[in-house]
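Incident log, structure service

09:12 report received: a user says their structure output differs between two submissions of the same chain.
09:20 pulled the input from the user's history:
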Amino acid sequence: MRGLPGEGEAPVSVRVHRDGDVEILTIDRPEVRNAVDGPTAARLADAFRAFERGDAKIAVLTGAGGTFCAGADLRGLGEGRGNRLAPDGDGPMGPSRAALSKPVIAAIEGHAVAGGLELALLCDLRIVAEDAVLGVFCRRWGVPLIDGGTARLPRIVGLGRALDLVLTGRAVGAAEAREMGLATRVVAKGAALDEAVATARHIASFPFECVLSDRASVYASLDLPLDEALRREFELGMTSAASDAMIEGVGRFVGGAGRGGV
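09:34 re-ran on a clean worker, output below:
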């Protein structure tokens, strides 16, 4: 396991651990429920940039000490550790404006609220412990969603449910989060990280060029008319259809492998 940045700087607040094809990024400030101050946001953004450049196939984002992330560390504003506030570059929570080319899975224990919820929305999948709590808790203090919450939440749960969470700031439990599509999967307390890593390994086991092209097509289609989305899907799909991995995969299918979902 390594921390970002190197030794000799402020206490490490983001830890990175490589597990085969999976990179695990952990916000490590349990004393403040993994609230993210300015330095932590910068380290988290750097960790995601390193993941994007590196050869790990999938990242898992989680928090230490039984909490995913309680949002921005508002105490840091008065202590010289305030989050970056600028219209371009890194977001206040760090990687929230990133357009990643590889999948990320959130492993959520405890609270994922305010800016912590926005970090979870950055991820492709959200594995949520049965006692976890999600919500736009920053509503209570007049702090706006400026890390992608208003952009990503309606795309994931739909307009009506997104407005419910944004306007009321209410707490959403794991069962309701699953029902509305906010939680991909609900697992036992303490099992979110193991399940997220297992899911990441499963995805990484597939011919990965095809995984990436289909994922890219899904995101591209969100902002395109249907005819353009279909054209883009075909263009992206053909990049993997011509690959050696597909030829090998078809050969395995012909030989009887992978049928019936196995």
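09:41 both user submissions now match this output. Likely a transient worker issue. Closing.
09:42 reviewer note: The mean pLDDT is 89. The first strand starts at residue 2 and ends at 3.
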